[in-house]
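Memo to structure team: turn this sequence into structure tokens by end of day. - J.P.
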Amino acid sequence: MEIIKIRHPYRPEQIPDEEVVLVLGFFDGVHRGHQKVIKTGKKIAKEQGLKLAVMTFTHHPSIVFKKLGASEMEYLTSLQQKEDLMRWLGVDYLYEVEFTSAFAHLAPQGFVDQYIAGLHAKVAVSGFDYTYGPREIADVAHLPEYAQDRFEIVTVAKESNEGEKISSSRIRELLALGKVDEANELLGYPYTIDGLVIHGDARGRLLGYPTVNVNFSRYARLPMEGVYVCQLRVGDTWYKAMGSIGHNDTFGAGRRLTMEINILDFHEEIYGETISVRWLHFLREQIKFEGAEALIDQLAADEVATRVYFEK
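Reply from structure team:
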């Protein structure tokens, strides 16, 4: 897959000189609804002997339109994760457009001229709710007017789960409730957060449950505080683990939020490693214990529950 980074206005020589099937969307999470749109594009590309291109943005448009501050935006996927998922889905060209004020000021006709026709789309594919400006004048119903017969338009119907639309906002809500099993069902893969292994308080080692302290992105959408069944990847290997997101209130109030992972049957030091954590199943909420002994007893019970989960 070739990644083409674009800052508006782009140079024509940045764009591969061939017709493509172009799939449009922001695709945060690349969930099952997004996958349906991309797979539709992939099928058309195969049938017509064309390359599959996807156009996305480096950050959410809400930041430019002041609907959210940069510190408030929490993504289901980092740009790197999105790239990996697009590669997995068989995308040939991934356009990563910086959503800037200059780009946002494009009129709908200008957007279609430069970022659909201009990217040599023979077929443009999007979800039913895709917009490229104010919804009342720039939704998929208006696209034929701006397209002027220069490319074919394919609109993909919504993907539902139990009668409800699969959406990034719905997945965020499930994560906020600790319902990672349900979030994973909508994503079509385990929810994953990447981070760097850093030094923590080393208290877990004293308790008999050494943990990996993960320095995660401030823009990552964390699941609800609690203890979870996880998997952690070091290099190319996934290990069984249990993870905690919380403030370690047992050891004092006002502590910072941490992500700590205890890897089962693992005894190596991995400081400085970039790792990935899959969130598989919620075990319990955070508890403030009276002392270390009660915490150790609970961790033992958490370990049993984690091992039982993987045995199933």
